[in-house]
Specification:
Helix content: 25-40%
Keywords: ATP-binding, Nucleotide-binding
Protein name: ABC transporter
CATH superfamily: P-loop containing nucleotide triphosphate hydrolases
Oligomer: single chain
Distance between the termini: 17 Å
Largest sheet: 6 strands, mixed
GO molecular function: ATP binding; ATP hydrolysis activity; transmembrane transporter activity
Pfam family, one: ABC_tran
Domain ABC transporter: 5-238
Number of strands: 10
Radius of gyration: 18 Å
CATH topology: Rossmann fold
Strand content: 25-35%
Order of helices and strands: EEEHEEHEHHHEHEEE
Strand order of the largest sheet: 6-7-8-3-9-10
Length: 238
């Protein structure tokens, strides 16, 4: 398997103007993912884990380093220098992101959110409708909620919908930012089943976890972070 993502010398800092401080979030991060791998990043809150994912996704612009991604459309592209149009295309068609928070357009139902995600992949309406119902059922989102607005959902329901919307697209690269943080054990198992399925279908994943034990048998490697620096990388027993 070839490399799909290669990060070299990634550094990112933030200026807190009101405090007159300059905080280094991550420093000289280097990581490489081969196609079909599932790699986990662990560490305490504030260690810089989410910053890495947001730099890959283009939410943050980096100061140093490169993020080379092997795109189906663009070939080898440095995400750190990609245009806004290129990043919008990649987010729609190749790179998925799951966070603990659900940002949605008002007056868009749960069903519409998932269906729209599938239609973005140039699938037909009938297929999108069918896959939407399958994945909402998989995550045991009550059927009476399908045509409701997510603003009325509980935190756990919003997170399950967020995960469903990202995973249903079967992206080439999936970024997971604490995807099971507020879920109960049964919901975590549902996430794990879909991760296992996506791995078999070739999706590459980079995930953040406070405790990787739950995903340990699926994970190929684990990177541990502290104060924005990778302390060590280890291979799992899978």
């Amino acid at each position: 398997m070839g490399s799909i993502l290669k990060i070299q010398g990634l550094s990112k800092s933030f200026k807190l103007h009101n405090l007159g401080k300059h905080i280094r979030a991550v420093s000289q991060v280097a990581i490489e993912l081969r196609e079909g791998e599932f790699v986990g990043i662990t560490g305490k809150s504030g260690s810089g884990k989410s910053t890495i994912l947001k730099c890959i996704y283009g939410t943050y612009r980096i100061e140093e380093g490169s993020i080379w991604y092997h795109s189906e459309k663009f070939g080898a592209i440095n995400l750190a220098k990609a245009t806004e149009r290129q990043m919008l295309y990649l987010r729609k068609h190749e790179i998925g992101y799951v966070s603990q928070f659900l940002n949605v357009m008002p007056r868009t139902t749960a069903r519409q959110l998932v269906t729209q995600a599938i239609l973005e992949m140039n699938e037909e309406q009938r297929f999108a409708d069918s896959e939407t119902e399958k994945i909402l059922s998989h995550f045991e989102l009550a059927q009476e909620l399908w045509d409701s607005y997510p603003t009325t959902f509980s935190g756990g329901e919003k997170l399950r919908l967020n995960i469903a919307r990202a995973m249903v697209k079967k992206p080439r690269l999936l970024l997971l930012d604490e995807p099971t943080a507020s879920l109960d054990h049964d919901s975590k198992l549902k996430v794990k089943q879909l991760i296992e399925q996506l791995i078999k279908e070739g999706t590459t994943m980079l995930g953040i976890f406070h405790d990787l034990e739950f995903m340990n048998d699926l994970c190929d490697r684990e990177y541990n972070m502290e104060n924005g620096i990778f302390l060590h990388a280890s291979f799992t027993d899978s």
